[in-house]
């Protein structure tokens, strides 16, 4: 059942005191219970006892108040929105990370999430701790007031920067195409009033930008890129202007010139998987990470960053925030897998965005040369460290600690060196294709 703490308070206090049954019918919410069914005059709705108010709220799917949606602003570290309220182990499918201070229209409450209205045809969900509620929608700007302004494309430091003038911070999502190499950003609640787009020659990786009114209130931004590889981008707001910063490709080719980050899963109190024999994922993930770091240094890669170099627990959110500041060219996350079925074994690689598929595929191909069983190339993976768009990234589940055969490999130092070598070779193969 939906959370009535929010819907009950707002529905009863803000709506039922004002609404008649005809109001509710007009908005299409009440289907099971209304004052007619209760043998009451609609004009006596004001006198409904709390019992009937709650009954109406429940029968309407806890959405009676939607005619008076509330405006909130995103807040906190790494706020994100989701496509659904699905309850799975790694959370519902993430639509995007989103900047703070973004205006969201809250229309419902489902356990620990708010349902938000993005546009006429789009909705999403957001964890409640990422929203600060402010005013009823009637007291704020409506979608009819949201008109896009001019665009400006230039370059700064190692990024091409596209800014788009808007009158407010509005929600958005992005996704990546590979062939051709394109970034697409949808901004919700916006009507195009863009009459010029300035593109300066300083831009190095962005070939072209153009707009599309995808729906009556969904504004699409197309960013065509040079080359085969998307090297990363970030989306935020500069005051009220939407800013999309697209990272330049490395100036020099080859793995020696990459800044590679390595994430060793778990640590400290977070043991991760523990085998029947007591082998802990956190211990071996760090050993594999250090072996990879050592090999990269031997191969001439000077810039290598470990998210943890010792047995400490670092929250995934803190890892992502730190990676935002160090700005790697590539992230490799190392984990060990487990299953309730001891016969399940093998290696797998994981990515979320299409721009990270190729590097994940090449690493998997190389790892399979070690004679490991193939568990698969897993796309759209909903792990937090796979979700950033700022850099290509791949998560490697090296083998299964729950499988006796795989566990013996994991305990073998020779296998640590072989794994590091195969990940290195996978990165080299990827670079030969995209550079």
From TrEMBL:
Transmembrane parts of this sequence: 46-66
One family name in Pfam for this protein: AMIN
A single MF term (Gene Ontology): N-acetylmuramoyl-L-alanine amidase activity
Keywords: Hydrolase, Membrane, Transmembrane, Transmembrane helix
Enzyme Commission identifier(s): 3.5.1.28
Source organism per UniProt: Sphingobacterium yanglingense
Reactions mediated catalytically: Hydrolyzes the link between N-acetylmuramoyl residues and L-amino acid residues in certain cell-wall glycopeptides
UniProt GO cellular component terms: outer membrane-bounded periplasmic space
One BP annotation, GO: peptidoglycan catabolic process
SUPFAM superfamilies: Zn-dependent exopeptidases (SSF53187)
Protein name per the record: N-acetylmuramoyl-L-alanine amidase
Chain ranges of the MurNAc-LAA domain: 320-428
CDD domains, alphabetized: MurNAc-LAA
């Amino acid at each position: 059942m939906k959370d009535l703490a929010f819907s009950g308070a707002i529905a009863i206090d803000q709506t039922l005191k004002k609404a008649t049954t005809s109001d509710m019918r007009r908005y299409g919410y009440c289907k099971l219970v209304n004052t007619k069914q209760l043998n009451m005059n609609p004009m006596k709705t004001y006198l409904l006892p709390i019992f009937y108010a709650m009954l109406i709220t429940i029968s309407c799917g806890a959405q009676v108040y939607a005619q008076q949606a509330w405006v909130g602003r995103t807040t906190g570290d790494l706020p994100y929105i989701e496509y659904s309220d699905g309850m799975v182990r790694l959370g519902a499918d993430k639509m995007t990370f989103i900047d703070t201070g973004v205006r969201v229209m809250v229309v419902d409450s489902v356990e620990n999430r708010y349902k938000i209205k993005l546009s006429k045809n789009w909705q999403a969900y957001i964890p409640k701790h990422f929203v600060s509620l402010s005013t009823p929608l009637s007291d704020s700007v409506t979608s009819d007031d949201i008109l896009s302004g001019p665009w400006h494309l230039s370059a700064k430091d190692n990024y091409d920067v596209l800014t788009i003038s808007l009158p407010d911070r509005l929600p958005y999502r992005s996704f990546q195409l590979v062939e051709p190499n394109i970034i697409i950003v949808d901004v919700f609640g916006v009507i195009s009033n863009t009459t010029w787009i300035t593109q300066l020659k300083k831009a190095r990786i962005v070939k072209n930008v153009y707009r599309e009114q995808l729906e009556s209130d969904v504004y699409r931004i197309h960013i065509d890129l040079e080359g085969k590889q998307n090297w990363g981008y970030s989306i935020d707001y500069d005051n009220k202007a939407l800013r999309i910063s697209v990272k330049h490709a490395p100036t020099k080719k080859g793995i020696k010139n990459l800044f590679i980050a390595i994430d060793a899963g778990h640590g400290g109190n977070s043991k991760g998987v523990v085998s029947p024999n007591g082998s802990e994922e956190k211990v071996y993930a760090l050993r594999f990470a250090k072996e990879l770091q050592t090999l990269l240094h031997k191969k001439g890669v000077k810039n290598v960053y470990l998210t943890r170099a010792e047995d400490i627990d670092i929250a995934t959110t803190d890892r992502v925030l730190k990676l935002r500041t160090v700005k790697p060219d590539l992230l490799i996350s190392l984990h060990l897998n487990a299953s309730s079925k001891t016969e399940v074994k093998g290696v797998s690689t994981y990515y979320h965005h299409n721009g990270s598929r190729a590097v994940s595929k090449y690493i998997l191909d190389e790892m399979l040369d070690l004679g490991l069983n193939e568990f698969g190339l897993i796309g759209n993976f909903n792990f937090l460290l796979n979700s950033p768009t700022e850099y290509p990234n791949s998560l490697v589940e090296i083998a299964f600690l729950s499988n006796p055969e795989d566990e013996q490999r994991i305990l073998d130092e020779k296998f640590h060196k072989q794994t590091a070598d195969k990940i290195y070779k996978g990165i080299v193969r990827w670079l030969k294709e995209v550079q």
